[in-house]
Amino acid sequence: MNVALIGLAFFSMLALMLVGMPIAVSMAAVGIIGGIAAYGVPFMDSIAPVVWGVQNESLLTSVPLFVLLGELLLRSGIADRMYIALSAWLGRLPGGLLHTNIGSCALFAATSGSSVATAATVGTVALPSLQKRGYPMRASLGSLAAGGTLGILIPPSVNMIVYGSLTNNSIGKLFIAGIIPGLLLTLCFMLWIAVSSLASGKVMREPKVPLADRLRSLVHLIPPAVVFGIVMGSLYFGIATAAESAALGVIAALGFVWQSGKLNRELLRNCFVSTARVSGMILLIVAAAFILNLTVSLTGVAEAMTKWVAGLGLSATGLILALIVFYLILGMFMDVLSMQVATIPITYPIATAIGVDPIWFGIFIVLMCELGLITPPVGMNLFVVHGIRPDKGGIEDAIYGALPYAVIMILFTLLLMAVPQLVTWLPAHM
Amino acid sequence: QERIKLKAIGQPLATGLIQKNKEQPFFENFAARTGLPIDVDYKPIDTLGIKDTEQLRVMKAGLFDIVSLRVSQNSRDEPTILGLDLVGAAPDYATGRKVAKAYFDTADARLQSQFGVKLLGVWPFGPQILFCKKPVAKLADIKGMKVRVYDQNLAKFIEMVGGTPVPVSFADTHQSLSLGVVDCAITGPSSANSAGWPEVTTHQMAIGFQMALNGYGMTMKSWNALAPDQQAKLKKSFDALSDDVWKYSEELFQDALNCNAGKDPCTTGKKFNLVNVPVTSADIDLVRSAVTKVSLPVWAEVCDKSNAACSKTWQATVAPVLGLK
Amino acid sequence: MSSDRPSVAVSADRVTPAGRVDFKTRLETVLATVFGVIFLGLAVIVTIETLSRKLFNISLQGADELGGYALAVGSTIAFSLALIGRNHIRVDVFHEKFSPRVQALLNWISMLSLAVFALFIAWVAFKVIQDTTAYRSTAQTPWATPLIIPQSVWYGGLVIFALVACGLAWRATRLLLRGDIARLNSDFHPKSAKEELKEELDDLKVRQASEGAPS
Ligand code: NA
Ligand code: NA
Fold first, then answer.
1. B–C: how many Cβ contacts below 8 A?
2. CA-based nearest distance B138→chain A, Å
3. Prediction pTM value
4. Helix crossing, A78-90 with C193-211: angle to 10°?
5. Strand pairing partners for C98?
6. What ipTM was reported for this prediction?
7. Half-sphere exposure of residue A353, counting CA atoms within 13 Å on the CB side?
8. Per-residue DSSP letters for B310-324?
9. Cα of A339 to ligand 2 centre, how many Å?
10. What is the mean pLDDT of residues C14-35?
C-alpha cells in the first residue's frame, strides 16, 4: 500500500464530502469500494459482523443518553435561567456579559456532550441581551462560538466517547482528564476577554446586582451543578461506568424538569425527536467509520503511514506539532466528528508508537476538534452563532470574533505539550 | 516457487506477552518457522475494529485464512468449543492440558462442519485467579463479597459460593477495586500485574477458575489448497507453537505470581507485596465441584440445543480424564 | 423552505391545511416515542442497577448487556428520524455556489446514495440474522440471551430505515423526472445551520412565552 494511493482515497473521500454527499455515505463508500477492490466478495461478507458489533457496543450507549440529558435541561428552560443567574455574578468583570457567555458555556458544557448544542443553547439565550446592551457583535459572536467548543472538552463529551470506543481507552479516564484542561481553557478565554476589554479603552460592565439578589439567583445553578456532580462524581469515585453515569444524569435531569413543572408529553416528544436526530446522525457516521476502519486496517494503511512518518525521523514533539498543522487544515474543511473518526485509525497508532500517552492524545484530538469548530470555511459553531445573531451582518463577524480564541486554543495545546500532567495527573489519581 | 499469501487475525494487542513474544513473531516469520513458502499478513483483532465474539463469522466469510481463536468469546456462536474450558475443570496446567487434549478432536470436528475452520492447536493464557482487597484465608471466604467476573459461567460459580458477581470490563476493574465497587476480581496474574491491580488489592490466591483457552484455526479452503506434505509440516509447526506457548504461559504465570508477591525471580512485571493465600485441597474441591454443580449443567443446556450430542460427547471424552462419573 | 417538514418545536398535533396530521409527523411521533421509551427505560433500569449495587450489594447483572441491545435497536430508529429530519450531515459551503440544476442533481444523488447505503446495510444485516439462526447463537452473559431476539428487532429497525430512505429517494426521483427543480432543492438540500437554529429559536420563544422570562 503506498502513500500516494492512500492520499488519493483520502482526497476522494474529502471531495465527496465537499460536494455535499452525506458524510456517512462518503466514508462508507470509500471503505466498501476500497475493501472490495482489494479483497472481493469476502470483504463484503465481513462487514455484517462489524455492523452488528458497533451497533451493539454498550460503550456507545452513553451517546444518546448524554444527548438526551442536555435536551432535557435545555427544553425545560433550566439552561435559560442558568444564564441569567450567571450574569448576575460575572457581569461586573471587565467585559461584562461576555464572561457570562463563557461561564454559561462552561457550565452547560458540564451537562452536555456536544459543542454545537452548547453554542446554540447559550447563544440563543444570550445574543438578544448582548445586542440590547450594546456589546460589540464580533466580540459577542466570538465568545459564544469559542465558549461553545468547551462542550466537548469539559465532560461529558460525545467526541471523547467516540475516541474511547475507537481506540479502546477508558471513557471514564478521558472524561476525568478533560476537567482540568476544560477549566483552564475557560479561564484563558475569560482572561482574554478581560485583557482585551481593558485594552480597548471602552470597558463594558454590567450594573451591580445586590448581593441578596445574587444569592437568590444561585438556586438556578443548582440543577446543572447537581447533574454534573452526579455524572462526574459517579465516574470519579468508580460507582458507575460512562453509560451508567449518563443514565444517572438523565434521571436526575428528569427530576429537575418534573420539579420545574414542565414535564409533559410535548416536552418529552421534542426531547426524543431531537435526541434521536442528533444521535442517529452521530451513530451512522460511527458505523460508517468502523467499515472504513476495516479497510484502512486490512490494507495496511496505518502501517504504511506509521512507517512513512517514522521515516521522517520525528520526535513525539515534532509529530504533535505536525499534527496540529494537519488538523488545523483538515478542520477548516471537515466536520469535526468525521475528521476525528476518519483520522484516528491512522494517527492514533502513529502517536502511541512514538510514545504519546493515549489519554493525552485523546484530549489533544478533542482540542483539535474544538479548533475545527471555529475555523472557516466549515466551522459549525461559526454557523451556529451566525445563524442566531439578531441583526444583519456577514459571517465574517463570527470568523474574526472567534479568531483570537483559535489562537488561544493553539497556544493552549502547546501548553499541554509542555505540561502534559495537566491532562494525565487527575485520571492517574482516580 | 510461487509464494502463498495468507491473512491472519491475531489476539488483541493489549493481551500481553504471549501475543507479543510468541504469536506475533511466529506469524511474522511464518516461512522460516514452518519451512513453507507462505507469508502471513498478521493483524491483531482490535486494530481491525472487529469484536472478538465475531471471529468465527468473519472466518466463515472467507476474508481471513488463519485465526487466533478466543474460545470463551466465540462459544456464543459455537457453544461446543467451551467444553475445552469449563469453569472448575482445570485448576492447574497439568489438568488443563489433559482436558484440552481429550476434547481437541470434538472441537475440531465441530468447527470444521459448522464454520469450515480446522483447529490446529490449543493454548492457554493461563489460570484465571483470585485477587482480593480484603483478607481471605480460603476460597469460601468470598461469601458475601462482590467479585468482578467476565462471563456467565464464572458468575454462576461465584453465586454458588455465596458471593455477588459483578460484571466489570477489564479496563474499569482497577478503579472498581480501588473504590470498593468490588472486593475481589478474577484474571490472570500477569494481566493483573500489568494493569496494576496489586496496587489496590492485598491478597492473591493461585487457584485457576478457568485456563482462558485459545486456539489456532485455519479455513478448510486454505488448508485443502496445501499438498499433504505441506499440511503435515504446517500442523507440526502449530503443534510446536502451541506446545511452546503452554510452557511459556506456565513460566509467565509463576513469574507473575512471584512479582505480585514481591518474590524472586520476577523478570516480566513490577514487584508488589501481595499475600499469597495457600491453596488447600478444600479449595480445589470447591472449584472442582463447580463443574457438576454449575458450569456443566448451564453449558449443557445451551450447547445441547445447538448440538444434540454436545454434553454427551463431553461426558464421554473429558469426564473420565477429570475422574467424574 | 419545505413546508411539510415539522420543526421540533412544533406540537405533535400539527395540522395540515387539509386538516389532518400529516404522515411524516405521525411516523416521526411513533418512532420518537419508541426511541424515547427505550432510552428512558434503560436509564431507569441502569439507575436502579447502579444504586442497588452500591447500596445493597445486589447486582442485576445485565444492565450492560441491555444497554448494548438498546443501542442496537435505538440507533436504527434514530437513523430513520435523522433521515426524516434531514440531519445526516452534508457539507453545504460549496453546495450553495453551484447552479440550481447542479444542486438539484447533487441533492438527488445524495438522497439516492443514502437509500443505497440503507439498503446495503439491511442486506448485510440479513446475513447476521441468517448466521444467528443457523448457529442458535447465545450471548455469553449471565442472561444467556438467544441473540436472535435482540437482533430481529434490530433488523426490523434497519428495514424501517431502508424503507424510509427508499420512500424519500423515490420522491426525489419523481421530482427530478418531473423537472421540479425548485421543489427538489427546497426539500432535499443540505440542512443549513440556519434552519437548525430556526427550530431552536422557535423553541426558545415557546419557552420564554410560557415563562414570561426576560428576552
Ligand atoms: Na461537555
Ligand atoms: Na473548521
1. 56
2. 28
3. 0.84
4. 80
5. none
6. 0.86
7. 18
8. HHHHHHHHTHHHHT-
9. 10
10. 76
